[in-house]
Design a protein that fits this description.
- The chain is an alpha+beta fold.
- The protein has a domain of 162 residues: Jelly Rolls, CATH 2.60.120.
- 31% of the residues lie in helices and 27% in strands.
- The strands form three sheets. Strands 2-4-9-6-7 form a five-stranded antiparallel beta sheet, with no helix packed on it. A four-stranded antiparallel beta sheet has the order 1-11-5-8, with no helix packed on it.
- The protein is elongated.
- It starts with a helix and ends with a helix.
- It binds calcium ion (CA).
- Calcium ion (CA) binds next to loops.
């Protein structure tokens, strides 16, 4: 029965997700939990248009798995900043061993030490992908056009699952600063096999239906037996009455 409840709960969450999805005009997507471009997961930066310096605002800070936290004790790193406020700024990322992965989600965290009113954080951006081997000669495909809120928090963006060997973050604007554009962290996530998950759910529900039908049949059989036994008993009593009446 635990499996049954699990299946129903899962189905309910799927339906809810779909309902919420419709309200928010977002597609129902399932993504992995491993950030494919994190340096600790083998992610690399293949090329970039500029960085403010090599120490504090290096492009490497985009995939170091941390953002600035000014609360004591101060932790994290500044993030990346461009050399100036020229656009677009482009950064190309690769996964471990430059493998092709099916991706459908990016997370951008504009958390940087600068206060938000200065307007240095990334605002409008695009995500481009390619499966070609050479990022310099590649044919790129646009998969997402996004806008970041000027808030110091992780912001998720989903798109149609797309194969990628390289992911290009193309930054089109900041929130008003004429000095540079900055970003705390960039993450990419794999599209999980939603169809396989649904197949498992359907198999469970089919088994649930089989069990329910079996249970229904069992109840029907028991009920029929009770009715049959009752009617047989009734018929016997009736015929006995008829017999005694005829004897009288
Ligand atoms: Ca970072």
């Amino acid at each position: 029965m635990r499996l049954v409840f699990l299946a129903i709960a899962t189905l309910t969450s799927f339906v809810c997700a779909q309902t919420q999805t419709k309200q928010a005009s977002k597609p129902l997507v399932l993504s992995g939990t491993v950030n494919l471009v994190a340096a600790t997961n083998g992610g690399t930066i293949v090329k970039f248009t500029s960085q403010l310096d090599e120490e504090s605002w290096s492009v490497r800070n985009l995939i170091d798995g941390t953002v600035w936290d000014g609360r004591l004790p101060q932790t994290g790193t500044n993030g990346w900043a461009s050399k100036d406020a020229k656009f677009p700024q482009e950064i190309v990322f690769a996964f471990r061993n430059r493998e092709i992965r099916l991706i459908n989600k990016v997370v951008l965290d504009p958390t940087i030490p600068d206060p938000t009113f200065i307007g240095r954080a990334t605002r409008d951006f695009e995500i481009w992908v390619t499966t070609d081997h050479d990022p310099d000669k590649a044919t790129w495909k646009l998969v997402l056009i996004g806008t970041l809120r000027n808030e110091k928090r992780r912001q998720e963006f989903f798109f149609i699952p797309s194969e990628a060997r390289f992911v290009k973050l193309r930054i089109l604007s900041n929130h008003g600063s004429d000095r540079y554009v900055a970003l705390g962290e960039f993450e990419v996530y794999e599209a999980t096999h939603g169809i396989a998950v649904l197949d498992q759910l359907i198999a469970r529900l089919e088994q649930l239906l089989v069990d329910l039908k079996r249970y229904r049949d069992l109840l029907a059989e028991q009920g029929l037996r009770a009715v049959t036994e009752g009617s047989e008993k009734g018929q016997t009593e009736e015929s006995e009455n008829q017999r005694s009446e005829s004897q009288n």
